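Hi U.,

Before I forget, here's the chain from the pilot set. I'm dumping it here mostly so it's searchable later in email.
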Amino acid sequence: MSDPSQTAVAGQPGVRATGPVLVIDDDELVGIVLSRALGRLGYAADSAPDGRRGVALFEADPRRYGLVFLDYKLPGMDSAEVCARLRAARPDIPVVLMSGYSREDAMGAASCEFSGFLKKPFTVDSVKEALTLPQA
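Structure:
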């Protein structure tokens, strides 16, 4: 399998995200399953169990990540605040919102402009699709 971090440019239509992925979700099983799916697609993944730790991981090395998968409902720091902090550290980072709610409900209620949406429960194919970024 080719290395997506060597063959793609984030933010171009129809092109997959580059580099390692950060998964921020308070459900440990979701983090494990998503990290495995990303591994099958050729991506390295780091996981954080809440928004504060996700932001801390990201802020420690903002250029490390090519994309962030962010759960809609997080304890302590909500997804809009997490997204704002990620974008303050690196405005061009693609952030894909994840939720069991419909795309319209979750993205309509969020006050951050997300790069994409991943519906839970997800499949490897839906993860692959979420890694394809729209024109910036």
